[in-house]
Specification:
Blueprint: H1 4-17, H2 19-25, H3 30-51, H4 56-71, H5 79-91, H6 96-109, H7 117-138, H8 144-164, H9 166-171, H10 179-185, H11 189-194, H12 200-224, H13 232-251, H14 265-282, H15 300-306, H16 317-344
């Protein structure tokens, strides 16, 4: 399905760029692991294309063009694009899912902040749950309840990332903590970004994020039993490795500014073993009623998209709004540069 050379390039990108996913993917069967590598490599390219560029608006607009070419069957001459195009064709990947990721990246490029936890869930749905839903598609799972639990796992992982990276994000001028949490603590966002400190109030917010993630990890577990048996160890591994990062955050006193929590290689190997064991146990257990829990309202559009088998999707107005805003920003930046050049001459 995927050119072996392109697949090798994707494996190498993930091995260096996403250690947690690379570790968890070792427990997936090859029929899922290989397209998953292509998927994650394309997502990694998309994330880096925005995160590492000074002109973030232009980077997102270029990504939109690349995605258009993937779905037109004319991918760019790059291993992740070619491999992802094969995945789109072979698995009938609904376009709503990668475009949701693109919208989340557009929000990042706009420097968007989130007033409430619900708004943060909406962002997490786009940059993480969309990937979880795409993983379900790769496993040939389109059941709405299983998709809801996959989306829970995605939001949980993103909340864990945010809790771990508060200090690192602040150094880059990024802030993902809900603004109403900061308001209640009497913390001015701009003052915090100028001088981020692990105050008691800040550490409580980090702890609350980890606890929110842990609640969703518990809900997500109920969906693993609805996956193909051969896929369960890998998804358990992803769940346990990311939750392990949250545990490391708690062990640090929720100080995500002075240091960055991580799991060691030995811990990852232990968690892989635990995951393989738990996947075997689930075959003997009755299906949990939590599987049928109501999905987070912020992920409903992903479930609706992935539960059908057609890649045809009408974009929501919110994506158009984000892309139009970025295009307007790009034009304004260029006009400002041109005026500066004229004054200098």
């Amino acid at each position: 399905m995927i050119d072996p050379d392109d697949l090798a390039r994707c494996h190498e990108m993930i091995r260096h760029g996403s250690l947690s996913f690379h570790a968890a993917s070792r427990l997936l069967p090859a029929r899922v692991r290989n397209p998953a590598m292509a998927l994650y490599a394309f997502c990694r390219v998309a994330d880096d294309a925005v995160d590492l560029q000074a002109e973030k608006a232009a980077a997102v607009l270029r990504l939109q063009e690349r995605l258009e070419r993937v779905y037109a069957g004319r991918p760019d001459n790059a291993a992740p694009d070619r491999a992802f195009a094969q995945v789109v064709e072979s698995f009938d990947m609904p376009r709503a899912l990668p475009e949701a990721l693109l919208e989340g990246l557009a929000w990042d490029a706009m420097g968007r902040r989130y007033r409430t936890l619900s708004e943060l869930h909406a962002y997490s749905a786009r940059v993480a749950s969309a990937v979880g839903a795409m993983m379900c598609v790769l496993m040939r799972v389109r059941d709405p309840d299983a998709l809801a639990r996959a989306c829970d796992l995605g939001v949980a992982m993103q909340l864990t990332n945010i809790a771990r990276d508060v200090g690192e994000d602040a150094l880059e001028g990024r802030l993902y903590l809900p603004l109403d949490w900061l308001d209640r603590a009497g913390i001015d966002p701009e003052a915090f970004l100028r001088d981020p400190r692990p105050t008691r109030a800040l550490r409580k917010m980090v702890r609350d994020l980890v606890l929110q993630a842990n609640r969703l990890y518990y809900r997500a577990e109920a969906g693993i039993g609805a996956l193909p048996l051969s896929c369960r160890p890998g998804i358990y591994a992803a769940r346990h490795i990311y939750a392990g990062i949250g545990g490391a955050v708690l062990a640090s006193g929720c100080d995500s500014i002075s240091s960055r929590a991580r799991t060691t290689r030995a811990q990852k190997l232990w968690l892989l073993g635990v995951s393989a064991f738990r996947a075997g146990v689930t075959t003997c257990m009755p299906r949990s009623a939590v599987l049928y829990a109501r999905p987070l309202p912020e992920v409903g559009f992903l479930i609706d998209a992935a539960a059908v088998s057609s890649p045809v999707w009408q974009r929501e107005d919110t994506l158009f709004e984000a892309l139009n805003a970025l295009a307007a920003r790009q034009r304004a930046e260029r006009a400002s540069l041109n005026r500066g050049s004229l004054r200098a001459s």
